[in-house]
């Protein structure tokens, strides 16, 4: 059962959004596995006893460093998500004229950026590439049963041999 300061949310519409409201801040998580990890970690955090504990309501822990770390990691992975297929964007990460990126699989089928309709450039986003190379990312075939989680720099090689793809 989530603490009162951590509440899951789900919306419906063209793009289904899922995530958590943590201390009043909505954190949208597009990756369902990531959402399960966050929920599990937050459920395992011990509530600090206090005045509201006697009223039957748990309090938020004083040290929210672990929660903040989980939120930051979730937000970084969300920023590295392709706006077309919602997979994590892997190297090389190219930019449109306005700085947006899509994954290479989707870019092959596009002439213009799906966000702003500007043309793509040959300019690479080296910062995003470095961040991806240092993040642990689940295989894009996770929904088909692949349980591999690798650093982003190694994931492309796995995708070429993944038995679930």
Features:
globular, disordered N terminus, 165 residues, 2 domains, two-stranded antiparallel sheet
Give the topology.
Blueprint: E1 6-11, E2 17-22, E3 25-28, H1 32-44, H2 51-54, H3 65-79, E4 94-96, H4 104-107, E5 120-124, H5 126-134, E6 136-138, E7 149-151, H6 152-161
Antiparallel strand pairs: 1-2, 2-3, 4-5, 6-7
Structural write-up:
With 165 residues, the protein is of the alpha+beta class. Helices cover 33% and strands 18% of the residues. The chain has helices spanning 32-44, 51-54, 65-79, 104-107, 126-134, 152-161; strands at residues 6-11, 17-22, 25-28, 94-96, 120-124, 136-138, 149-151. Strands 1-2-3 form a three-stranded antiparallel β-sheet, with helices on one face. A two-stranded antiparallel ribbon has the order 4-5. A two-stranded antiparallel sheet has the order 6-7. A hairpin with a 5-residue loop joins strand 1 (6-11) and strand 2 (17-22). Helix 1 (32-44) packs antiparallel against helix 3. It starts with 5 loop residues before the first strand and ends with a helix.
């Amino acid at each position: 059962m989530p603490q009162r300061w951590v509440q899951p949310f789900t919306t419906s519409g063209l793009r289904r959004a899922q995530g958590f409201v943590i201390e009043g801040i909505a954190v949208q998580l597009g990756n369902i596995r990531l959402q399960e990890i966050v929920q599990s970690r937050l459920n395992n955090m011990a509530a600090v006893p206090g005045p509201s504990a006697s009223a039957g309501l748990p309090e938020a822990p004083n040290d929210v460093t672990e929660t903040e770390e989980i939120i930051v990691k979730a937000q970084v992975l969300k920023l590295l998500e392709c706006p077309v297929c919602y997979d994590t964007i892997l190297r090389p990460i190219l930019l449109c004229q306005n700085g947006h990126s899509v994954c290479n699989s989707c870019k092959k089928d596009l002439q213009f950026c799906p966000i702003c309709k500007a043309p793509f450039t040959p300019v690479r986003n080296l910062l995003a590439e470095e961040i991806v190379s240092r993040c642990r990312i689940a295989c894009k075939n996770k929904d088909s049963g692949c349980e591999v989680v690798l650093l982003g720099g190694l994931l492309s090689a796995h995708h070429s041999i993944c038995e679930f793809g």
